[in-house]
């Protein structure tokens, strides 16, 4: 137990009995927390545990209902993010606050003194991003960047302000292991300079590796403080979720069946100047197989998902086949009618409409494949609200989706619960082919394990599952086969047992060995 | 020092319901102040503006006559706005609908047939829809902003109408007045009751409002409108096409505006003249928002705005002030509706200290 007062004596930041009410609901209740100078402090907790609320109070976005924040031992009232920044607190959000129409440099400039010239900011940002291994083009427009690249802007932006305490919310969720390692080096460097880091993560391994102490939240209360290096991932997870997180059981020896989804030498030019073109994609997934596609953010995953789902059709109808049917020119609903299901990466505004109820969001993906059950009135297509609602209820029960009220807006659910609903929405149909992009991005450990188990079970029941993921632990946990995407090229698929982590990492880093092209058909 | 709008973490359900009423009350209050500054008794003036028109049968008929185009156009616009397409040019579609609908009675004045009226209505709708198709084409083809193109097309339509009735369509026996021949009786939209002028247009308006309410509430098409309005990407995931929705919503609202146009010319005026609308197409925007973009709400708000037109005429007679006062009331109303809605979602914060940063951090 090496928490609170570190060797340097006084903590940099102390939080005493901090409480935040939303109405009568206490999102945070009596939180105590001490962060010593030069320490990397982990904040652990499931989605909805109160981590975001706590952090927002520290960063001046929310006003505490009760309790005190002490900065260098003195009471501090933080009324706005800029006050937090002038104290010396920097923050990297999980959901980025960037203007899509502006360039990287312009976005950074917005949070700095307006007198500094854009050119200078560009230079400094370029320098910092170089130094910390976070490659960024200051002139690129944010709209054209991937999630991973957008996060780099946030990190660089926080670092530019030279903070004493930097708060990172799930920073590695979109980085490769190598990039994460570089980020950790950055963090160690910051630590060596005497700065403190408040590190929010679901990745227990990571927390054990880099954090000096950890505070665990559950249901808005501190359930424990510990030295994560003395704990195992399982014991940390237990503190977090209050129950043992079950391992995904993969089962063995399932026989592979026919090819259910097939892509043959598919090339797609980039639609925007910054999009990644797909080059000569070959892929076959059989019934019973979980093909995981590993890769760093922004290497063509989004583009691949779009052409697989039919949200963007391709010129060559034969390039994509689902259950033997050529579907390159077919739209997403035609592919759904063939038995395919799709789960996009972005929950809000792509997989779901935040403002709409869960039952409406069910209809979003199911109006055509389940036309008969959910619609009536022939050409009028009258929605059978009762049937839709009971289907939504069934999915919530099946996937243990926790929500308030019978049919709340999708936006009111925590990330993990919404993701369980979105995945459940497809599983409920027993799809023959399921394509999932980042199934557990920003999802808490309990929900992630449930989703992974569901994907594995689906494949065992005889479906072909494609999982596009940046989370290697996830890939190793569920994949029967692994392929790596890099710069729009997809490697051949390897049996999961035949690939070492190191080799995957190398391939993700864009090392194409010479066997790539000839091995492409060797599945 | 500056004023900032800060998003509320929760917006009040109660107030999102009463906000249109609150806006009405504020409009009346500030209207009263305006009358007082004009040297009139505020309460008397408000009475003659808003109450007197409701006391006589003939003026209730007038109310229905004026509400009909407002509701017809307003419900069409509500579908547009819900789907995130901003058709501001209903006035132009109204005008073109009136012109295309009048082709038969103007060019074939001797044609007496019961077929003529249905044909006129259909042609008016087609004309309005095609005219709204221009901004739809420009938007889907060239990514042009439909707010600008639809608005600019209003002036083209109005000037075209002006040219028509002063030129080729002018009645040769009309003593040089810029208007066409009067429509034959078969081409005139019949009145509903013996007691006054209210004609079938109000029935069209009510049917359209209920039909579109049903569509938005119960049909997959309405769901499609809402989804695409909230998120184009989610719409694409659902298999809906944003491009087709541009066409659908623009042409639907254009058709309803065109129907309103030909109904107005056929039912209320009886011939074509340079000015056929006191700005119905623009006022309908207020109607749509005051009705919270809900077709049933728009029926109510259509009557409210119709009352401002009527009140303006009445006030001109009884207390001797310009009928431009109607426009003032409409402006006040739109202003208060929008600001009430804004304040439901945002709180006002006056920031006194000079901020060095922070602008980018309101996620």
TrEMBL record, chain A:
Keyword flag Methyltransferase: no
Name recorded for this polypeptide: Simple sugar transport system ATP-binding protein
PANTHER family listed in its UniProt record: CARBOHYDRATE TRANSPORT ATP-BINDING PROTEIN MG119-RELATED, GUANOSINE IMPORT ATP-BINDING PROTEIN NUPO
Xref: Pfam families: ABC_tran
Signal peptide coordinates: none
Family membership: Belongs to the ABC transporter superfamily.
Keyword vocabulary terms for this entry: ATP-binding, Nucleotide-binding, Sugar transport, Transport
GO MF terms held by the record: ATP binding
Keyword ATP-binding: yes
Domain ABC transporter: 13-244, 261-512
UniProt lineage: Bacteria, Pseudomonadati, Pseudomonadota, Alphaproteobacteria, Hyphomicrobiales
Automatic annotation (TrEMBL), chain B:
Keyword entries, A-Z: Cell membrane, Membrane, Sugar transport, Transmembrane, Transmembrane helix, Transport
InterPro entries for the chain: ABC_transp_permease
UniProt key word rRNA processing: no
Topology in the lipid bilayer: Multi-pass membrane protein
Pfam families listed in its UniProt record: BPD_transp_2 (PF02653)
KW Ribosomal protein (keyword) present: no
Transmembrane segments: 12-38, 58-80, 92-109, 115-138, 147-165, 198-216, 245-263, 275-291, 298-322, 328-346
CDD domains: TM_PBP1_transp_TpRbsC_like (cd06580)
Protein name: Simple sugar transport system permease protein
Chief location: membrane
Subcellular locations according to the entry: Cell membrane
Biological source species: Pseudorhizobium tarimense
């Amino acid at each position: 137990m090496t928490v609170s007062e570190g060797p340097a004596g006084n903590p940099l930041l102390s939080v005493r009995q901090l409480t935040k009410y939303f109405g009568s609901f206490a999102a945070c209740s009596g939180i105590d927390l001490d962060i010593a100078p030069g320490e990397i402090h982990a904040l652990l907790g499931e989605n909805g545990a109160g981590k975001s609320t706590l952090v927002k109070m520290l960063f001046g976005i929310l006003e505490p209902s009760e309790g005190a924040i002490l900065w260098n031992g003195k009471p501090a009232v933080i009324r706005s993010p800029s006050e937090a920044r002038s104290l010396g607190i920097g923050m990297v959000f999980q959901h980025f606050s960037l203007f899509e129409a502006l360039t990287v440099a312009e976005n950074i400039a917005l949070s700095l003194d307006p007198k500094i010239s854009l050119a200078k900011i560009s230079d400094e940002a370029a320098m910092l991003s170089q130094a910390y291994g976070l490659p960024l083009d200051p002139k690129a427009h944010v709209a054209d960047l991937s999630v991973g690249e957008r996060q780099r802007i946030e990190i660089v932006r926080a670092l530019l302000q030279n903070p004493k305490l930097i708060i990172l919310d799930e920073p590695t969720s979109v980085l490769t292991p190598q990039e994460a390692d570089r980020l950790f080096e950055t963090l160690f460097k910051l630590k060596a300079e005497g700065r403190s880091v408040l590190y929010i993560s679901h990745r227990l391994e990571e927390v054990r590796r880099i954090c000096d102490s950890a505070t665990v939240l559950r249901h808005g209360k501190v359930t424990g403080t510990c030295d994560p290096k003395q704990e195992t991932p399982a014991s940390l997870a237990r503190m977090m979720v209050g129950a043992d997180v079950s391992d995904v059981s993969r089962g063995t020896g399932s026989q592979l069946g026919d090819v259910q989804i097939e892509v043959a030498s598919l090339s797609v030019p980039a639609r925007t100047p910054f999009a990644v073109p797909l080059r000569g994609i070959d892929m076959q997934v059989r019934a019973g197989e979980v093909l995981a596609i590993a890769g760093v953010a922004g290497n063509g995953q989004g583009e691949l998902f779009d052409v697989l789902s039919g949200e963007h059709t391709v010129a060559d109808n034969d390039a994509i086949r689902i259950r033997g049917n050529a579907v390159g020119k077919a739209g997403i609903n035609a592919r759904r009618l063939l038995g395919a299901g799709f789960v996009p990466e972005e929950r809000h505004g792509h997989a779901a409409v935040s403002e709409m109820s869960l039952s409406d969001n069910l209809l979003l993906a199911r109006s055509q494949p389940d036309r008969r059950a959910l619609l009536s009135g022939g050409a009028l297509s009258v929605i059978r609200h009762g049937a839709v609602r009971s289907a939504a209820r069934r999915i919530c029960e099946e996937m243990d989706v926790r929500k308030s009220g019978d049919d709340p807006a999708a936006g009111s659910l925590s990330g993990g619960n919404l993701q369980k609903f979105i995945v459940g929405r497809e599983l409920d149909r027993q799809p023959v082919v399921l394509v999932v992009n980042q199934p557990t991005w920003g999802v808490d450990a309990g929900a992630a394990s449930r989703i992974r188990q569901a994907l594995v079970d689906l494949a065992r029941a005889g479906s072909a599952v494609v999982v596009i993921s940046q989370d290697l632990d996830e890939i190793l946990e569920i994949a029967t086969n692994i392929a790596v995407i890099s710069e729009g090229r997809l490697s051949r698929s390897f049996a999961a047992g035949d690939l070492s982590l190191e080799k995957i990492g190398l391939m993700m880093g864009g090392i194409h060995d010479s066997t790539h092209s000839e091995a492409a058909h060797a599945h | 020092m500056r004023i900032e709008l800060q998003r509320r973490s929760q917006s009040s359900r109660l107030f999102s319901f009463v906000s249109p009423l609150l806006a009405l009350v504020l409009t009346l209050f500030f209207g009263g102040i305006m009358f007082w500054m004009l040297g009139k008794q505020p309460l008397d003036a408000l009475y003659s503006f808003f109450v007197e028109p409701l006391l006589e049968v003939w003026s209730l008929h007038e109310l229905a006559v004026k509400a009909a185009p407002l509701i017809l156009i307003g419900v069409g616009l509500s579908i547009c706005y819900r789907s995130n397409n901003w058709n501001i040019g209903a006035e132009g579609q109204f005008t073109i609908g009136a012109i295309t609908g009048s082709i038969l009675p103007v060019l074939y004045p001797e044609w007496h047939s019961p077929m003529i009226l249905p044909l006129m209505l259909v042609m008016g709708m087609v004309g309005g829809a095609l005219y709204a198709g221009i901004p739809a084409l420009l938007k889907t083809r060239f990514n042009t902003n439909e707010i600008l193109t639809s608005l600019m097309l209003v002036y083209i339509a109005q000037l075209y109408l002006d040219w028509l009735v002063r030129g080729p369509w002018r009645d040769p026996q009309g003593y040089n007045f810029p208007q066409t021949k009067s429509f034959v009786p078969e081409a005139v939209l019949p009145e509903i009751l013996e007691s006054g002028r209210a004609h079938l247009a109000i029935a069209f308006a009510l049917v359209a409002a209920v039909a579109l309410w049903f569509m938005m509430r119960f049909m997959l098409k309405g769901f499609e409108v809402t989804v695409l309005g909230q998120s184009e990407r989610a719409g694409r995931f659902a298999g809906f096409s944003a491009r087709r929705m541009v066409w659908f919503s623009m042409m639907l609202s254009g058709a309803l505006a065109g129907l309103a146009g030909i109904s107005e010319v056929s039912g209320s005026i009886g011939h074509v003249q340079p000015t056929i609308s006191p700005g119905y197409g623009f006022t309908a925007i207020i109607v749509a928002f005051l009705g919270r973009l809900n077709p049933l709400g728009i029926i109510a708000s259509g009557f409210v705005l119709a009352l401002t037109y009527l009140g303006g005429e009445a006030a001109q007679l009884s207390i001797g002030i310009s009928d431009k006062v109607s426009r003032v009331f409409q402006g006040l109303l739109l202003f208060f509706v929008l600001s009430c809605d804004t304040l439901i979602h945002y709180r006002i914060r006056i920031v006194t200290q000079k901020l060095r940063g922070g602008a980018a951090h309101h996620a």
